[in-house]
Write a structure and sequence with these properties.
single chain, about 600 residues, alpha+beta, Heat Shock Protein 90, Ribosomal Protein S5, domain 2, Ribosomal Protein S8, Chain: A, domain 1, 3 domains, 5-stranded mixed beta sheet, 21 helices, about 35% helix, binds adenosine-5'-diphosphate, binds magnesium ion
Length: about 600
């Protein structure tokens, strides 16, 4: 038999592949906007005619392209963003497949003009159905302008499949919104037909949300901020009372890329627990930042799905961050506890402002909230979180607890751990990590309020610093003061410490300061983006474990209670577990085996 396999000509292959990338005008909008972002643009204009059917034009002031690149960018697998397979592990750009322009040019007429800053003349390239018609030098501003006309002009069947202008425009603007939310630092101008749809300068995330979704959003948003070494989450969630019947604004961005994730949706939804009706949806705008090496964004051609290496802890952290935000703003007063308000009234919410329970209160007040959380872990810790293994701890009805609150036995192991009995096992708490979590939330709260208690020292202490430390410190004196550290400039590189955070009032101020500076140096990068969290984290680390000595039972109880008054008792701010629970069944099993 004669051989019958042929290689498809490029333009046919491109057209087939285009089906994956370009489904409708909105796909073109997304790809062009993302390219402009990747090109470092600070201003982007999007023009749509007939919902993008006849024109999608994106103009940016980014780095532009050289004469050859302006043509090469239309080749399949032409990309400047990765060069080797390893690069796939560190993707920080939106694009990397080098497919978008080739695909778009296969099914439309594309007119590109581009100039890089160091070139006097720019380049114009016109490509129609993968065929280059024009490649010439032109006068054009620095940056790139790409006009995509007559989408699917050569595939009538697909053109017919497009929906009404209203529907296509909605899709196109949704793509725009995702990019605009992810990049509030970029100014956008969007024109549809003859009307201005959006015109913004650079702004912050909150302003951007309000700009895109309306003034009313301003009062509806609750800030979220949580940072661990593995993941930082920040952004906004909607107050429960504004939850809607229809799926509204629900945005997850991972490293500034919009993603869909039913799994994370669940983490957020679940955090609202009983706060909203089952068929209502809260809104959220959450930005996750993770190490690019810990995700795989390569599993979907349009890249809205990604895979996390450690999905379960991401779930737990997102869940806890949202709960904490709801709790902190007192939106969820009885979130973590039994819904019987009479039982809980004197104890207060799970926020750090809760009145701590003390052993001497036995008999006069109800069961401490913290303990109860441990008995009820499967409602509070999200899914099976590695170290915690909440499923092993059976839920004990809290009514029983309130009848017999008796003092729970606690004891110390090697000065490092606190052990206590649970109904179906026991818990081991890492003392230092627990104090770190407590100090972190305390500091964060103080920073948010702009003030915190400090214990004034009788004798201010002068400390001389090296130049780097001194510069670092001076830049954050007001914030340190909020966290209870009273420091003033004394002249030269000397500062005077006149007050310490109450938790460590009797510590050596100089040692504390040096520890803190070391932590701050380590958090330098984070200080730029999530300043409060990074400051609080540094403070917490330098405070934690300063009194390593023996703990009286009362102080152990106190520590546990303060831990469970935290919004996120189970992890240190660095994402390490603060406690581990053991089930009796686990013990039985081990004895049986022996
Ligand atoms: P990818 O974005 O995956 O690299 P594209 O087909 O979207 O693939 O773009 C191909 C290349 O063209 C990019 O890698 C980039 O070098 C260049 N390019 C595309 N759009 C722009 C732009 N607006 N400004 C500067 N360069 C661009
Ligand atoms: Mg691209």
């Amino acid at each position: 038999m004669t051989d019958i396999i042929r290689l498809l000509p490029d333009h046919v292959a491109n057209q087939i592949a285009a089906g994956e990338v370009v489904q409708r005008p909105a796909s073109v909008v997304k790809e062009l906007l993302e390219n402009s972002v990747d090109a470092g643009a600070t201003e982007i204009t999007l023009v749509l005619k007939e919902a993008g059917r006849n024109l999608v034009q994106v103009t940016d002031n980014g780095r532009g392209m050289g004469h050859t690149d302006a043509r090469t960018c239309f080749e399949r697998h032409a990309t400047s963003k990765i060069g080797a397979a390893e690069d796939l592990l560190h993707i920080t750009t939106k694009g990397f497949r080098g497919e978008a322009l080739a695909s778009i040019a296969a099914v439309a007429q594309v007119d590109l003009r581009s100039r890089s800053a160091n070139a006097e003349l720019g380049t114009r390239v016109v490509v129609e159905g993968s065929r280059t018609r024009i490649h010439e030098a032109v006068v054009t501003p620095v940056g790139t302008s790409i006009a995509v006309k007559g989408l699917f002009f050569n595939i009538p069947a697909r053109r017919q499949f497009l929906k009404s202008d209203a529907v296509e425009l909605k899709h196109a603007l949704e793509e725009f919104q995702r990019v605009a939310l992810a990049h509030p630092e970029i100014g956008f101008h969007v024109v549809s037909g003859t009307s201005d749809v959006v015109r913004t300068g650079p702004e912050n995330e909150r302003q951007r949300i309000v700009h895109l979704f309306g003034r009313k959003y301003d009062e509806r948003l609750v800030p979220v901020e949580e940072a661990t070494e593995q993941l930082s989450v920040h952004g906004f969630i909607g107050k429960p009372e504004f939850a809607k019947r229809s799926r509204g604004e629900q945005y997850f961005f991972v490293n500034r890329r919009f993603i869909r994730s039913p799994y994370l949706d669940h983490a957020v939804r679940n955090a609202y627990d009983e706060l909203i009706a089952r068929d209502n949806y809260p809104s959220w705008f959450l930005f996750l930042e993770v190490d690019p090496a810990s995700i795989d964004i390569n599993i979907h051609p349009t890249k809205t799905e990604i895979k996390f290496k450690d999905e379960r802890s991401i779930y737990a952290i997102v869940h806890a961050a949202v709960r904490r935000a709801l709790g902190r703003f007192n939106i969820a007063p009885s979130l973590d506890f039994e819904p019987e308000p009479a039982l809980l009234a004197p104890v207060g919410p799970s926020s750090a402002g809760a009145v701590p329970w003390r052993p001497q209160d036995i008999g006069t007040r109800q069961v401490p909230t913290g303990w109860q959380m441990l008995f009820d872990t499967d409602r509070t810790s999200g899914p099976d979180v590695g170290a915690i293994e909440p499923t092993r701890t059976k839920v004990l009805p809290s009514r029983d607890l309130s009848v017999d609150p008796g003092p729970r036995p606690v004891f110390q192991l090697h000065g490092k751990y606190i052990v206590s009995q649970l109904p179906t096992g026991f818990v081991v708490i890492d003392r230092r990590r627990a104090s770190e979590r407590i100090a972190y939330e305390h500091a964060l709260k103080a920073l948010e309020l702009g003030r915190g208690p400090s214990q004034t020292q009788l004798f201010p202490r002068n400390v001389e610093l090296n130049a780097t430390d001194h510069a670092l410190l001076v830049g954050m004196l007001p914030e340190l003061r909020s966290m209870g550290l009273e420091i003033a400039e004394f002249g030269g590189r000397t500062v005077s410490v006149s007050g310490l955070p109450a938790e460590v009032a009797s510590t050596d101020p100089e040692a504390l300061l040096h520890d803190l500076l070391e932590q701050l140096q380590q958090e330098r990068a984070a200080l730029k983006n999530e300043r409060h969290a990074a400051l609080a984290r540094s403070m917490a680390r330098s405070i934690a474990g300063r009194d390593d000595g023996h703990l009286e039972a009362t102080r152990m109880h106190d520590l546990i209670d303060r831990l469970f008054a935290c919004e996120m008792p189970y992890y240190t701010p660095g994402g390490k577990p603060t406690l581990i629970t053991f089930g009796l069944d686990e013990l039985h099993q081990r004895f049986e085996r022996g």
